[in-house]
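Supplementary Note 2. Why include the ligand at all?

Several targets in our set were suspected to adopt different conformations when bound, so apo predictions alone were not considered sufficient. For every target with a known small-molecule partner we therefore ran a joint prediction. The input for FE2/S2 (inorganic) cluster is given below.
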Amino acid sequence: MSRIHVTTTINGDETEYLCEPQDTLLDVLRDELDLTGSKEGCASGDCGACSVMLDGRLVCSCLVLGAEAEGRAVETIEGMASGEELHPLQQAFIDKAALQCGICTPGILVAAKDLLERNPDPTEEEVRYWLAGNLCRCTGYDKIIRAVLDTAADMRGAA
Amino acid sequence: MGKLGHTGTPAPHDSAIKQVTGRADYTDDIPEPIGTLHAYLGCAEVARGRIEGMDLSGVLAAEGVVGVITHEDITGHNDISAVHADDEPVFPVSEVEFHGQPLCAVVATSRDLARRAAELAKIEITPLEPVLTTREALAAGGPDVTAPLKLERGDAAEGLKSAQHRLAGQMEIGGQDHMYLEGQIAFAMPGEDDDMVIHASTQHPTEAQMIAAQVLGVPANAVVVNVRRMGGGFGGKESQMNLFCCVAALAARKFGQAVKIRPDRDQDMTATGKRHDFSADYEVGFDGEGRITAVEAQLAARCGFAADLSGPVTDRALFHADNAYYYPNVRLTSRPMKTNTVSNTAFRGFGGPQGVIMAERMMEEIAYKLGKDPLDIRKANFYGVGERDVTPYHQTVEDNIIARVVEELEESSDYRARRDAIMAENAKGGILRRGIALTPVKFGISFTATWYNQAGCLLHVYKDGSIMLNHGGTEMGQGLNTKVAQVVAEAFGVDLELVKITKTTTEKVPNTSATAASSGSDLNGMAALDAAEQIKARLVAHAAEKWGDVCNDVQFADGKVLCGGEEFGWREFIAQAYADRVQLSAAGFYKTPKIHWDRAKGQGRPFYYFAYGAACSEVEIDTLTGECRVLRADILHDVGRSLNPAVDRGQVEGAFIQGMGWLTTEELWWDEAGRLRTHAPSTYKIPLASDKPREFNVRLAEWSENPERTIKRSKAVGEPPFMLGISVFEAISHAVASVADYKTCPRLDAPATPERILMAVERLKR
Ligand code: FES
Ligand code: FES
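The joint prediction is reproduced in token form.
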């Protein structure tokens, strides 16, 4: 099979890669570009561990083909901090112990950041349902939800 | 207590910054050397049958395929049994024993190609009649997959006969898939001669090493197993990783290349074991106050085709069939049944939850029979202090605090008033009904295989004062590395940042036990403390030699060393010690004292101590659809003197939710052909963020302190809170019972899925 040449933007940087037609965006990120922060939990769109932003939309990168990223903008967990400066959500997840094994964490952070950009003042209920697509088997979610709510409050305060 | 970073403080998880930035490497993130090959399993599509032949020509001709591994490629012994039962081949030679059993592995240049080619294997099998369920296996008269256990004290038959009331019942208790978010994975790299390095996501590196060596036919010293961190384990990576380690190693040996194997989620769920589902039969005698006089029960488990850890799992179910209750006369038997299903394995609680839930069912039954609040029945049967305190296995409960835990929670959750309000509301007869329950847990801590209760640690202090810590435990998100590092930092009185925790590797600490049975910090914390104390003793002796007899007041605190009125910085002191030729490295060791167990007699002290807790949950069910929501949960849990309250709370919350999932939404469903039909998160539902209790109040019992000399008087926390989820199940039962005015015990089987809730409502309404 002939490989497909793709030009895209990843975390603000123009990026080119070759991929097989059946390769998912998740495969490409992890195997071709060495961006291993996005994880595979199910490869079927049911766990959210592979969450990334595609043209400003939250998607499961296991359900997007690598070829589909042509000409579009992808944001992953690796682009969330600016240099060494963590995004407030990242800092809150550390401070509030909102992670245990940490394998769901990148996907949850990407999804939570998207929520706060759409809705800077979500209710507890809204956070819970927004994150219902991101499985976490370790934490029981409570600390995650609190970290998101507290960050939202802090960011509103700072704005 | 004290500085952030020492024990008792909520130091953040050691990998937290890497984890929030996506830079924490899990096994699948390790860079692959050029030429890395990928393996994928070819699995059976019948539950039982004779293997007549394999035609792999299609596989071998497929794009990218380098070769195939079958049982013929096994250079050593074809067995991966964790207990050396010789009943669990890597690949079977003549008989298929469950649907989804691995029969061969395809090795190709990419995972995708290996996976596609594995579909092309043609395996000729003559089907045989399978035995799929526990009840079927019991009816057929066995066999047991491993030896059953009997626990007996007093005279159960007589106690039942002379009881004022007696009742008998059955309960079906479902299994559970681990659904660790990171699936099974092993990555083997061949070295010179026989050497093999395996990176794996395993809770038991030593066992993976031993079994891989056995399968390869090389001594253990040729195999190194490494694990930096796991994306969850929960018991599912205790013995289940052996298969993947062996396949990767066999392929790496055969093809002389690095080989990675990572099943997809469906194969992971069909080919690896789960929590055992149980069929419990109980009979209980009691007086007019609900006090139990005798219990007789059989706990039978669907073990699957091989022993794996089913022996100790079913043993632990019996050890917990009393939960927190005293049975004056008791006879408990286990039946670990062989079935043609995947071989079930360790899962948080290790059989304990299945025993506990049966005890709670009996409490509930008694309460409905006598028309009382189940909490009063529970309290009437608690173990006493100094009396009524001997377990069915003849260990005396010496550290009982259950009454205080339950009373405090009853108070803080406002249980009585809420129960009254709920029942008044239900009495109005709406479609939505609420229920509430407060349930206790007592959980025994120690491996019941006594020899597992040992641990090692290798500790280096480098001459710049930095410290490297290696212990035999594995990090799967439970914060073990953080806790053990806190112990070391505190011992030397230095900043936590000075302590580096590296991957767990069989090269540094040999002969380790599985990180399981909640024992991780108990065992490894003590081994690390031992190593630190050895080094400190040498430093003190050195100081005495150098500055005179000041041994008694050498203090290590705040990054300083105080000795004989002099103050040194830690680094300076260490540099000096190095220059004076003090050995700055030590191997620590620990073995749990006091425990012993005579399985044949069913007597001993299998547990060093007990951990306690209680939860009060309130639910709301929809009597027209069976849907259920958890409105509120209050928890009070005993972790002794917490090593790290943030980590411990995380364990408690996560365990509660996982326990709730086990008993509500997580349904494993096999069809008549023995095929698992719930084999991915699309069909197998673990709790979501939206399922979390609307109100969730979690507290640690801050006053508690372990009377035994554990590390800093803490208690193990991994498993005990799992059983707090039972309060949700009991609350559902309470809500269901309301449709028949609480006259009948609903006798729900677990999990209480919406379907089961609805059926129970319909049954009770009739
Ligand atoms: S891996 Fe993409 S949703 Fe699970
Ligand atoms: S922290 Fe382990 S899955 Fe979320």
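Chain A is about 35% helix and 15% strand. The longest helix of chain A spans residues 142-158. Comparable summaries for the other entries are listed in the accompanying table.
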